[in-house]
Design a protein that fits this description.
mainly alpha; 2 helices; rod-shaped
Length: 137
Amino acid sequence: NQADMQQGLDGVKLALKVLNEYYAKEDKAHTAGSGAGSSIIGLLEVVESDFSKDLAEIETTEETAAAEYERQTKENAVEKTTKTKDVEYKTKESVGFDKESAELKTDREQVQAELDAVLEYLEKIHKECDEVAETYA
């Protein structure tokens, strides 16, 4: 769109140049059409002004969009780096937790084995030491 607008503006400028040169000649062959020529030149000047204004707006909009794109791209890069580091640290932390969990599980199994042995020994002692009263039935 910007290229089309620039091409249109260049065309209008060229038309204005040609018409101004034509009506600026000393040759009086065109005196009857000079009023119409000045109207056309006036109309083309308005068109040139509108094209220039629209082209400036398009350029400003594109520059703003480009700046926003650059800002967003940098922001995304920072966010990606941050999240990548977060994943790295959380993975390292997770591995540490897995290792600690395995160690605690092993410790629990050993303590459970000791408890089972103590309970078995206690039951054995109860069988040997507890006196059971006989019932008289």
